[in-house]
């Protein structure tokens, strides 16, 4: 049931991209034959005659791609060559060819690179070791890490398979990490079965992720789709994410996050937080989630903060959200305790303010359509407009509960008790 389900429109767009891609590779190769750093001739096959001076293909550096040989050293060699190319008139590119499966141990791709921008095109499969011994020397708990690379492009129609199932009983490792990057573009790939979160974006500015297909079983623990922290101006759009935890988590020190046209489910929804664990000062602002759908998820639009933290989560908008059988469609939880029962109540917490929900419709499988569970510090300036959440079971009704929240609501079903109710003008 995992992996093969895709949003039809995404699949179509990816198929289009694939054919587009072939022509681009061909054009680039013709263009580059005169340059010292020849790019590959074709996406797969045909690279032998260009290997002598190519940056082009990982197989030129000894990668085998039979799914069994450890290709880590070959990938590192190929990365080093790519990263050493002086700025050329086009972007130096490394290709992971299609119809091959490259087994990689944990590897760290380090920048900065000499060229202003570099591209890694993944057409085949990158596979993680399926034994725990294969994961030794794991730098920063990461399997594939791109560090300190600016203007990095990682795209293609390939697959990254984290072989995560061996880890799901144990505490574990994230699959792909972009750390300290600017102007990252990551698109087209399928990400499967990460041991922990599939993609993390840390200390990045102006990152764009799109046309991704991220999938792990609903029962797999901590397999977040995309985690963002300490980053600014991150956009994630037109992707399918279905995992065992948050589809997207927007964490501490982030601002300017756009999340658009994400199909999420199964999973725990799109979350701001959790914020303020262990008394931390945390800040999140300018988060815009729009045109997203949640299908069979535990949560939909969620904000979660721990007791005892400080800082703020503010200026957050959830707009045009469709819900299908969601357990907790809209929730702010200031008593988040990660499923445990032993968290103490404290006198401080991360302050939640200026949160807007507009155009949220669909069904809830539980009773609690809307839950604002805030502490004495109050969640302020909550705005709700044109919300209609009904029970998945036509025989049942749903409720909104509200503690220590203030703001306004308009045309909102179910009615939220502690907000000021404005007249419902459905024309607006
Ligand atoms: C693990 O991978 C090896 C190849 O690297 C394969 O021969 C073996 O069957 C795999 N084992 C499992 C349990 O998937
Ligand atoms: C990334 O850059 C920082 C700052 O220059 C440096 O301290 C760190 O070692 C680099 N990380 C890697 C993995 O190259
Ligand atoms: C990868 O990104 C580059 C730069 O944006 C783009 O030209 C190319 O079409 C992309 N390739 C794929 C397969 O998406
Ligand atoms: C991912 O790799 C594992 C082997 O490690 C394999 O059993 C599994 O089928 C792969 N998943 C997909 C969707 O190819
Ligand atoms: C999980 O971790 C324990 C202790 O570290 C280890 O003994 C066990 O082999 C691990 N399980 C798997 C499936 O790797
Ligand atoms: C953001 O990154 C994109 C590439 O994804 C680039 O085209 C654009 O110029 C960058 N914007 C800024 C402000 O640097
Ligand atoms: C987010 O989207 C809004 C409206 O579409 C746009 O104005 C803004 O620049 C976008 N921000 C980022 C970080 O992409
Ligand atoms: C929701 O997910 C279920 C189970 O995967 C699927 O059968 C159904 O078509 C999906 N509904 C929508 C509206 O996407
Ligand atoms: C409230 O949030 C919205 C949306 O992010 C923003 O445009 C507005 O400026 C914020 N208001 C204040 C007073 O910060
Ligand atoms: C903390 O306060 C919340 C809300 O008042 C309450 O539901 C919860 O039981 C309290 N937890 C503890 C450990 O006192
Ligand atoms: C309250 O929310 C409204 C609607 O998003 C916004 O326009 C206004 O700036 C917010 N005010 C404050 C004080 O955050
Ligand atoms: C709310 O949604 C239900 C179920 O789709 C529909 O029957 C009802 O008419 C809607 N109410 C409003 C006010 O739009």
UniProtKB/TrEMBL annotation:
PANTHER family (alphabetical): PTHR31375
Gene Ontology molecular function terms on file: polygalacturonase activity
GO biological process, alphabetically ordered: carbohydrate metabolic process; cell wall organization
Protein family per UniProt: Belongs to the glycosyl hydrolase 28 family.
Spans through the membrane: 21-40
Active site: 268
Keyword Acyltransferase assigned: no
Alphabetical list of InterPro entries matching this protein: Glyco_hydro_28, PbH1, Pectin_lyas_fold, Pectin_lyase_fold/virulence
Location relative to the cell: Secreted, Cell wall
Keyword DNA repair included in the entry's annotation: no
Entry protein name: Polygalacturonase
Record keywords, A-Z: Cell wall, Cell wall biogenesis/degradation, Glycosidase, Hydrolase, Membrane, Secreted, Transmembrane, Transmembrane helix
Location (main, coarse): secreted
A Pfam family of this chain: Glyco_hydro_28
């Amino acid at each position: 049931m995992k992996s093969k389900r895709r949003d039809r429109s995404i699949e179509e767009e990816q198929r289009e991209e694939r054919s587009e891609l072939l022509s681009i590779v061909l054009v680039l190769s013709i263009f580059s034959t005169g340059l010292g750093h020849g790019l590959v001739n074709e996406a797969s096959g045909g690279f032998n005659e260009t290997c002598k001076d190519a940056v082009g293909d990982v197989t030129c550096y000894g990668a085998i791609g039979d799914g069994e040989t450890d290709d880590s050293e070959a990938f590192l060699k190929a990365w080093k060559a790519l990263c050493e190319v002086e700025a050329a008139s086009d972007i130096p590119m490394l290709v992971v060819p299609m119809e091959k499966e490259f087994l990689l141990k944990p590897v760290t791709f380090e920048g900065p690179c000499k060229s202003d921008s570099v591209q890694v095109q993944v057409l085949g499969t990158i596979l993680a070791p399926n034994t725990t011994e294969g994961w030794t020397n794991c730098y920063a708990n990461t399997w594939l890490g791109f560090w300190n690379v600016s203007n990095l492009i990682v795209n293609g129609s390939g697959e990254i398979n984290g072989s995560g199932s061996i880890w799901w009983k144990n505490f574990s490792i994230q699959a792909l990490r972009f750390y300290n990057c600017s102007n990252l573009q990551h698109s087209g790939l399928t990400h499967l079965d990460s041991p922990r979160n599939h993609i993390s974006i840390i200390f990045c500015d102006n990152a764009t992720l799109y046309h991704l297909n991220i999938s792990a079983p609903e029962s797999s623990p901590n397999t977040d789709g995309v985690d963002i922290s300490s980053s600014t101006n991150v956009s994630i759009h037109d992707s399918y994410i279905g995992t065992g935890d948050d589809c997207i988590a927007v964490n501490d020190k982030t601002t300017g996050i756009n999340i658009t046209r994400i199909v999420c489910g199964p999973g725990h929804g799109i979350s701001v937080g959790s914020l303020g664990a262990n008394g931390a000062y945390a800040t999140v602002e300018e988060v815009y989630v729009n045109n997203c759908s949640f299908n069979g998820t535990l949560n939909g639009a969620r904000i979660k903060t721990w007791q005892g933290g400080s800082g703020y989560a503010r200026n957050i908008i959830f707009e045009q959200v469709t819900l299908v059988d969601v357990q907790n469609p809209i929730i702010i939880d200031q008593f988040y305790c990660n499923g445990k029962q032993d968290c103490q109540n404290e006198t401080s917490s991360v302050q939640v303010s200026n949160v807007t929900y507009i155009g949220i419709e669909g069904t809830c499988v539980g009773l609690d359509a809307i839950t604002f569970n805030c502490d004495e510090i109050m969640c302020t300036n909550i705005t709700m407009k044109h919300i209609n959440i009904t029970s998945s079971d036509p025989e049942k009704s749903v409720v909104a509960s509200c503690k220590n929240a203030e703001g306004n609501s308009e045309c909102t079903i179910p009615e939220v008790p502690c907000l000021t109710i404005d007249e419902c003008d459905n024309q607006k």
